[in-house]
Amino acid sequence: MEGTLIICIDSILRFRSDYDTTIAVPMLSVQEQLGKNDPLFFLKYFRNKVLIEKGVTISNIFLAIEPWQAMLSTWLEIDIAAYIAEIRKPSQEEPIFDWISIQRITSVHRVYQRKDMKDNEKLSEYFNREHTPTKYFNIESVCMASGYRKGDKEHYSISEYIHEIKNIPVIASDRQILIGYDDNNTDILNNKCFGIYDNRNIKYIQGTTSFAFYELMEAIFNDGLFYNSPQTACHSLEMIKEMLEIIDRGNMNHEKDNKGCINQQENNSRNINGGNDDGELNVEFYDSAFDPLIEHIETEREYWNYIKLLCHSHGHLPVRIGTINEAKVPEYRFYNNIIDDES
User: Which residues pair with 141 in a beta bridge?
Assistant: First the structure.
């Protein structure tokens, strides 16, 4: 069914049809009415767009997905039940970030050919050897979950003690970034083209985006929280802290020299690349061309009205009527960059 999954502030996952902007019904009620005996019913909605209501926190998300925790645990290979049990425990920890952002970032960088590693050659020597560029590129697209503080350029891992992040608002950024990593001899993205930003040796372009439900889940649990359970996270983080203390003691004399502030500036002067327009594109519409689409829309509307009636009459969870305000990022970010909010 065409529509949007909405994670609401009352910790309920709801569904809203693309053909009705005023009513959102609880997803659990939809499943109870249409797929009560189908354990995989919710899989049909994994690719639907997801929206996060303003003010929703990590805890709200965990509780909203609780009815499907077994399925999601198998899908993500994460013990979601353990995370849900942990966030239910009372705690006094203050939130360590202002918000958690879900972002889509694509990176493009050239593939280089290196000769085989020599016997007894150190890794640093191997990677610093001269290498030959190939005609191929590595293209990687990821959905990330990072913690941010307003005005602070740094991005932080959220695989922390769960009680320090459970009450932090989660926001899905509506802006995606494509980054081209260049070296001294190559320009993957032409910065003479209007809309390409140049930040040191990183060039990037921006566009709008949205997330499917499964992408949001993978960003939060696989990229963000990372560890199989909060217990595993605590154990691993303690080990990391011990290792960092050892490294800090060894590097204490050099720490001050290594600290610095890099002022990253963007070139706001852009040249518009007019391109080559040899002719105009003529589009013709034939009678009845949209009849199948209109029929499909009418069928979807009828089915949606049927679902609303079932959930309103038999569902035990509240139906939302009216506008649901989507959470918006206070600052657009990628990695250690704060992007101005220009269209």
Answer: 106
Is residue 319 assigned to a domain? yes
Is there a contact between 175 and 105 (Cβ–Cβ < 8 Å)? no
Q: Whole-angstrom Cα distance, residue 326 to residue 157?
A: 24
202, β-bridge pairs: 181, 199
Q: How many separate domains does the chain show?
A: 1
The structure tokens 């105009």 sit at 280
Question: What is the distance between the terminal CA atoms of the chain, rounded to a whole angstrom?
Answer: 32
Evaluate whether residue 112 is within a structural domain: yes
Q: Which residue in this structure is represented by tokens 């005005």?
A: 151
Cβ–Cβ < 8 Å for 28, 190: no
CB-based burial, 288-325: b 16+ in 10 Å, e otherwise: eeeeeeeeeeeebeeebeebbebbeeebebeebeeebe
Q: DSSP code of 67?
A: G
User: Collapsing DSSP states into helix, strand and coil, what is residue 107?
Assistant: strand
Lowest mean pLDDT among 33-47, 240-254, 258-272: 258-272
The boundaries of the domain holding residue 70 are 1-248+298-329
β-sheet bridge partners, residue 212: 49
pLDDT tens digits along 25-83:
999 999 999 988 898 999 999 999 999 999 999 999 999 999 999 999 999 999 999 99
Q: Are 25 and 14 in contact (CB under 8 A)?
A: yes
CA nearest 133: which of 110, 151, 152, 161? 110
In which element (H, E) is residue 248 found?
A: helix 230-250
Instruction: Answer whether residue 66 is part of any domain.
Output: yes
In a domain, 338, yes or no: no
**Radius of gyration of the CA atoms of the chain, in A:** 25
Question: pTM surpassing 0.85?
Answer: no
Question: Which token pair is 252?
Answer: 């204490």
Distance CA 343, CA 28 (A): 38
Closest CA relative to residue 194, chosen from 206, 182, 176, 179: 206
Q: How many CB atoms lie within 10 A of CB 248?
A: 10
The amino acid that residue 250 corresponds to is: G
